[in-house]
Amino acid sequence: xxxxxxxxxxxxxxxxxxxxxxxxxxxxxxxxxxxxxxxxxxxxxxxxxxxxxxxxxxxxxxxxxxxxxxxxxxxxxxxxxxxxxxxxxxxxxxxxxxxxxxxxxxxxxxxxxxxxxxxxxxxxxxxx
Length: 128
Prior knowledge:
By secondary structure, this protein is an alpha+beta fold. The protein contains 4 helices and 8 strands, in the order αββββββαββαα. A hairpin with a 5-residue loop joins β4 and β5.
């Protein structure tokens, strides 16, 4: 039996909430309390950092997990729907429980981050 993807793990969690946003809607805002993680089920989301750098996030990706895991409890970025999107939202404590019960999820998130860094390096948007 193949391992579940992060999106499938979140979808199976009894506290996950499915939300839809129209194009241009803000999923979360920089500086606000980081209380949840989001998984993109459908659509495209722009994740914008303090400098204005935009990272495009796609179906199957989790966003905001860095902020709820080890930051000061605030979103460092904002997320804006580039297209109509469907996301799963999972509160911080439920996500931490999910990580505890499925430790391979952390490895998958590291893989997602690695892929993102390789993509940024390849297209010249990553500076050292």
